[in-house]
Amino acid sequence: MAGISGLGSGIEIDKIVPALVAAERAPKQNQLDTLQKSTESQISGLGTLFSAVNDLSTTLASLKNVSAFQKTTVSSSSSSVVTATSTGSIPAGKFSLQVQQLASSSKVVLPSVAGGSTATFNTGSLSISAGSASISIDVTAQNNSLLGIRDAINTAGDSQGISASIVTDSSGSRLVLSSSKTGAGNDLKVSASQDGLATGANSLNALGFSGGSSVTQLPLVAGGASATFKQGTLSIGSGAVNLSVEVEAQDSLDTIMQKINAGGSSQGISASIETVDGGSRLVIHSSAAEDLTVTAQSDDTGDGDVSLSTLASTAGSNSKTIDTAKSAIFKVDGLSVEKPTNSIDDVIEGLTLNLTGVQSADDIAANKTVDITISQDKSTVRTNLQKFVDSYNKLIAATNSLTVVVPSEVDGEVPVTGALVGDSTIRNLLAGLRKQMVTLNTSGSGISSLAELGVTTQKDGTLSLDSSKLDALLVNKYDQVSEFLTGSNGLVGRLSSVTDPYVATDGVIKQRESALWSIKSSINTQTEALDLRMEKLQTRLYAQYNAMDSLVSQLSRTSENLTNTLANLPGVVKKSSS
Questions:
Q1: pTM for this model (two decimals)
Q2: Do 76 and 135 form a contact (C-beta atoms < 8 A)?
Q3: Strand pairing of 124-130 and 188-194?
């Protein structure tokens, strides 16, 4: 209608109607805007209040249970020997330990071979075990190299804690086997069995090994087990064991093997013959874990195909034990204990011991011990009480800002007020908390007030904590502090009974917020209704004013027509326009 209204009468309808509509809308709109602002302010204020109360309630929960005062700290007088951690409820006390031996796992080296990682072996199978953990490896023409066997062991042993690596030294390349299984009886053992399907440069059986033993392969000899040797002497040594074998002219490899087995049976020395590509060799076994050495003295006299000196073994080429699987051996308050691991949780109830080192022989001989001390965790109680003071002070600061009244510096102006000024929710909450904090505990002869703990109220309503006073009580009256705070009528429980109804999902604050959101929804509904009513009013006013404008326009035209008609009637004398 803008731009065409009022042409007949000259009245500015497009200004008059909006002005009348605005005047009609203003009182109700101002009422709704004021209510909207007040409602949103209260919702925001209640959110701030809920956050502060919930923070205090959470802090009270950390002090509410007796278990908060049953926490302990565990310390060791020598962490390089043993450490300990608490795994449950354990009373304060002290345990004296002596650590004589750590649990360890098995590690062995197998015989060295020439050719590096590409050195080949006869095909067959390997069975490797460490206690109850065991794996089986099929050695085929596709994986019968040192590298292929290593990879097959690592693949099969991944879940059993058995692994292999290749180490190359001056004597050649060899497999080094490791196990993660600690404890006596868990030594690595290797059982080898050749199947004759394919041959390599080395005997697979030479990889056979029993924990705590050593094995060495002697050089290859052409001619097999029937090859004969010139006269001389073989000397076989393994730790304290020394075996001398006299070899006569034309003794065969088989004869030498029999002499070694006959002379070494009482000393843990034995021999076997392995045939591989290129010939046969002696494999010497020792039940000792020490290095095996084989030296040959040959006078090269007499008949025989081969000089005895060819049977000397390369130093360090044999298999041996590097680490023996052992159990941890220690004493607890003089009681001897043996465990398969260094982490023990079934000796002292509520404690896990972690053995990290062994005491010296002198310390053990002098009966020196490492002390594990379990003490009450007073620092946690102190920290939680400080959190309570801080949370309460945060609540006071929040309620002060929500209920503040700041007078205007200009006379007659309305003062600035907080979102919840005069609100009964805050008054009731603070009154309930203050009542519980000043109520004396008259049960028993222990602590009766917060002030005795060093917690006092300041002039501004906040709390302060005297740490030195609290520390003295925690040292001398720890149980009384616990009783005052967490007993059947303890302060923390009573304060929680005040805060809990305010922070519950259907509690006081949430109910208030729900009511305010309903008011906010009602404001939106009323605003929509007001918009619709004003739209109808504007339509009606435009219709009325436009009707009036049309009528005035018609009357003006009628008046003009009537004037013109009368002026043209006969006998009508017109004034001259002199």
A1: 0.58
A2: no
A3: antiparallel
